[in-house]
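Incident log, support desk, overnight shift.

02:14 A customer reports that sequence design results differ from what the structure should imply. Their input is reproduced verbatim below. On-call engineer (initials T.W.) acknowledged and began investigating.
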């Protein structure tokens, strides 16, 4: 029976069936890459937050103290051009560090113990749900610009919900999309075959784009630092805590130097 049905398929129908199978396989690949990218972004964001808390703010305080010492030396040696340049550079560095970390210059700030180490660890259920949403609403499955814009908004909402571990929001996005009348378009084998072929090419292009984005994030300064922290964690060490400890020791030494200068 099944063999007879296959024999009755026209070449167009056989090609459409083959292309649909290829499309489904590529959709799974794309979804996995989208998940990897969203996870990496969330991990970097969490790591960056901890970095600024443990390293950025203490470093900004250290730069501020160094700038204060440089300013004192510059005032004591008003005709020394090198001292003036050093003071200017130190002040500029302190301002940059303060701006990036949120440190308030000129205020005495106690280095508090960091909060418990946090990591982005999505559950298996969350990952599975995100894959389902991405596979359904991804922008590269659109057949026209209007549909693409709609899908892009849904994908942004899905990424936000994933990063916030909001399963109910992901479920809502998927449910709303499944019953959307906008999903039903066109008639006939020829039109469907063209849509499927174009979707395949769009997905292939998007897969490569995501690969490039992931590689770029991993090679970024923050990405490399996070990777080093992960490698050290496997050895039972905490990179950011070690960096923080070294900076705290430097702060104590510079504070002693500053105190000696103003006495």
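02:41 Re-run completed on a clean worker. Output:
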């Amino acid at each position: 029976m099944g063999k007879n049905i296959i024999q009755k398929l026209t070449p167009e129908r056989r090609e459409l069936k083959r292309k649909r199978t290829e499309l489904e396989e590529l959709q799974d690949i794309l979804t996995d890459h989208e998940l990897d990218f969203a996870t990496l972004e969330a991990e970097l964001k969490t790591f960056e937050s901890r970095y600024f808390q443990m390293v950025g703010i203490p470093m900004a305080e250290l730069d501020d103290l160094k700038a204060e010492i440089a300013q004192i030396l510059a005032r004591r040696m008003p005709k020394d051009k090198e001292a003036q340049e050093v003071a200017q550079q130190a002040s500029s560095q302190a301002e940059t560090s303060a701006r990036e970390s949120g440190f308030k210059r000129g205020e005495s700030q106690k280095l508090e113990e960091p909060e418990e180490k946090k990591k982005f660890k999505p559950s298996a259920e969350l990952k599975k749900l995100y894959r389902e949403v991405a596979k359904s609403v991804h922008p590269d499955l659109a057949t026209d610009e209007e549909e693409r814009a709609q899908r892009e908004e849904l994908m942004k909402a899905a990424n936000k919900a994933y990063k916030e571990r909001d399963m109910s929001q992901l479920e809502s996005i998927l449910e709303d999309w499944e019953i959307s009348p906008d999903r039903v378009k066109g008639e006939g084998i020829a039109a469907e075959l063209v849509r499927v072929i174009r979707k395949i090419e769009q997905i292939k292009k998007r897969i490569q784009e995501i690969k490039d984005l992931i590689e770029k994030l991993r090679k970024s300064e923050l990405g490399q630092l996070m990777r080093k922290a992960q490698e050290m964690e496997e050895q039972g060490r905490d990179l950011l805590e070690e960096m923080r400890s070294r900076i705290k020791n430097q702060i104590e030494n510079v504070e002693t130097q500053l105190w000696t200068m103003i006495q």
